[in-house]
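Predict the assembly for these two chains.
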Amino acid sequence: MHKETLFRHRILPVATVVLVIVAIWYVGAYFMNAPFQRDLDRRAGVTSTPMEFLGKTMSQPKPILPAPHQVASNVFENTFLRSVSSNRSLVYHAWVTLSSTLAGFGFGTLLGILIAVGIVHVRALDRSLMPWIIASQTVPILAVAPMVIVTLGAIGISGLVPKAVISTYLSFFPVAVGMVKGLRSPELIQLDLMRTYHASAAQTFWKLRVPASVPFLFTSMKVAIAASLVGAIVGELPTGAVAGIGSKLLAGAYYSQTIDIWAALVAGSVLASLLVAVVGIAGKIVNRNMGGKPT
Amino acid sequence: MSALMRTSLLTSWQGWLSLALSLAALATLPLLDPDAVARFAPMALFAIFALSIAGAVVSFLPLPPLFLAAAIFVFCHLSTSILISGLSGNEGKAATAFFLMIAANWLLAWRCVSLLSEIRTRSRFADGLLGLAIPAIFGAWLLILWEALTRGFGVPFILMPPPSSIGLRIAASLSILWADVQQTIFKAVLAGYILGCSAGFVVAILADRFAFLRAGLMPIGNLMSALPIIGVAPVMVMWFGFDWQSKAAVVTIMTFFPMLVNTVAGLSASGTMERDLMRSYASDYGQTLMKLRLPAAMPFIFNALKINSTLALIGAIVAEFFGTPIVGMGFRISTEIGRMNVDMVWAEIAVAALAGSLFYGVVALAERATTFWHPSNRGG
């Protein structure tokens, strides 16, 4: 019975929508590639049946919109059939991006937690820093990416660190805001209980505030890791970086390798979903080990 | 009175530290290296120390906090302005004493901010004023420290230009900046934002009407919000050309999913009681939607509008890295950095930050006006 409803209410609708999207994609690929194919045929003096023509629009080397199966085969080929250290391997590029994502995410989370602890405990910080943290996110920071990279490059820092700096900037915010909320989530009655125990500020912090903030921390870490990945990808765009998903996008754009662009997009998306899933699972495990309510 | 005196002597640790730093600076005079071109006049030197020490001493006095804060504010900022103005012509020639004095004044400003944030007021106007003044002082000190450090140490211009020269650059190239703003914000961002948000809204209403569609779209929408959608920028540039249309397309895609997810969440925000009430009034789907569920969804919708206001700017600027006509904020940033005109890049970033904050502010004001009934807007 339970399986039945899971299928009817979860899997079936999602599968339908995915199928519709793929169908629209195929139709779009046909219509977007058709004019160029017609042009090619006319120049070559070939007349093809509608079926042949359809097949041709789906197999151009540089289509305007590659068909899903072209993208899928490109991803498969570049993921599983190439050696991991090859320059064309998506695994290699994903690894380059992943390393700076994780470095930025680590620093960003740490920074966010520190800021949150400061804001919760120092009133002057709360009033003066909090508005700027919010304002910092209305700044289109990704626009600064080229400058961060060139500036750090000028003082001899290149490679992973500049990208990680951008990721850090993007990922500290959700963590800081989430942790402030989480550290303030204990209710007055619980704080009062700590006071009746004559708990010191440190004890209240470690035994009440920190455990209460853990669910908030993981929720915001999910947002932060996605933001961190975006930061790493954009960080690879402006410098003509040699490796990484962002550089793959840029190279694809320069040489009109549309299939490569889409393959890089797919790789980035898979990476994002995996990262978010890992953080989510880690959150569930920690929550269960702390004796929290299963959610 | 003496108890009060004792507490303010104890609590103003910033005052003590500031005093100590001033004395250390006095011991390590002069403020500038011996080979500096223009030295501080004796009067200016005296004023710097007198004002700073006076600020520290005032901070120990048992006076009303607002008065204290105002006095410290005046003392430490006068001292700082004399210090900074003495730097012109002497970039990179600042000595230890100079930075000690900057630090001493910074501590005083900190004391001033903590005094201000302890003040409890009863009027909402005064609260709002304090809420502006405290972060303003903090932001000003970020700029002051930036200015003092870059010019004091003589940091190369290419690495980090001081804020004053960025300001000059903004003033000198207003026409270029304005053209970029028009291209990027008025054309690309606004078109994409309106298109993306309204499309997301319409699809959300549809998804709300048909449960099957909602069950199918929501997991995908949630997934999409975690994906690096910005990566479609090169594809869009290929499809829609170099001009603003391709940037608007990127912005549309980026803003669509947050709007969809938030609106669907918002439409289920109204309680069963209220919906039952609507049913007992025999109101049909449209009436329930317009009179109950959409108003109840407003906070969620505005949340999406706020998220999208930043996403839209980012999308448009990053999409310009992939190709533009020779105008636009992203174009300017990527070409001026190539020509090592770092101050122009910073000017562009300052404009982008200002535009982003204004955009966000307008949405926030519209939210105040529309959802005045919501607990978070009713004060408290």
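The mean pLDDT of chain B is 84. The CA atoms of residues 233 and 319 of chain B lie 5 Å apart.
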